[in-house]
Amino acid sequence: MPDVIGRLKFGTDGIRGVAGRELTPAFAMRLGEWAAEWMHAHNQPLRIVVGRDTRRSGAMLGAAFAAGATSRGVDCDSVGMAPTGAMSWLVRNEGYGLGVVISASHNPAPDNGIKFFEADGAKAKDATEAWISERWHEAPTGTREGAELGLLNTGHSLNAYAEWLVNLVPERLDGMKLVVDAAHGAGYHWGVEVLRRLGAEVHVIGDQPDGLNINAEGGATKPDVMMAMAVKLGAVGIAYDGDADRAVFSDEQGRLINGDRTMALWAAHWGSSPVVGTVMSNGGFEAHLKKSGIGLERTPVGDKKVSERIFQTGAKVGGEQSGHIIFAERGPTGDGLITALEFLRVLRREGKRAADLAFPFDNWPQIMWNVHVGQIAGWEQEASVQAAMQQAEAGLGAGRLVVRASGTQPMIRVMAEGPDRPAVEQAVALVGEALVAARGGEVAGKVDLTDALGD
Question: Are residues 188 and 336 part of one domain?
């Protein structure tokens, strides 16, 4: 009988798909089974902690995953709705062998996803994902019964995580006026409560999740709502995404402070070098760091790659324009609540407004085309595309060209940047049009990333 569980594909941030279509209960249960078998085979503590964002499908997929894991002899503790960063903290501080987050991050509500944290709190290694993928189309053999089965426990508290966060800011935030947009997502409670425990005056939007409105009206990928409110109240704005593993900010004038600017501010205050960025980090940001005596290490996109480079270089901070930022002394993965606290702590220590600290440089013009193609594999071998890339790079001078396949969508992303806008526009058009001609695709979107959020 053919296996109809579905195709397993790990992307840059776990597994993604439409819940009920690609991500079915049967799919999640099989994943739970093989995750448990991986733990047995690699002598991990036989305990999993499972959390989710506010999507309607989250409880369904979480229950199915836990059913699979407990059927293979591993205990599961469910914490319910929780920020992604909390799951990393729980794994590395409470003796779990694996953390599981049911979330599709900034994607719309019909989507969902499943991602793993290993015992050190970092995203699952490529080797772990490969081990599960190699076995995917076979069910584990043998059965467990009676005392061999795992237990499912519910109601695990996040109070210890919240207290740890509060203690990260000994200066406190008393009297600081903030606007928080929680995107109707996983940060809707703790992403606000921690700030209030620190004494801040917090005005909240996006804190009424109904299972279907996550990321729909605002949040880190749609920060205009938060920025407008920040201007109205003369406050600093904070916007989380759906699983609260990223945060972006607004100054009191309604100007966006993305990940590049957040890291520049933090590194300047603490004298931290190098900073780890990605291929999407803006050239103006890099030039500013260089002028300040701070190096920039670039990696491929994805906070897993950023985390690896932080470990390799000994950097204290690294991240992406999108607001995914890792503070090495706080943990090995992005946590939007930590990012918010580190940003606000610098403002408090400097005794200045965000408007006075976050804009020490101008970004270079940076433009990206998203090219939808039917077949991604082999695009690098297209002679016409290679010729267009060489011509584009020659015309950019001091600028950069980055062409890469998306890790989560059938897209090829073409990004160009440089100090001269016309040259940037010409470069990205050359390569984008060459891809469309060679691969029979279409341009799905043209995005000006100069002062925006990268990917």
Answer: yes
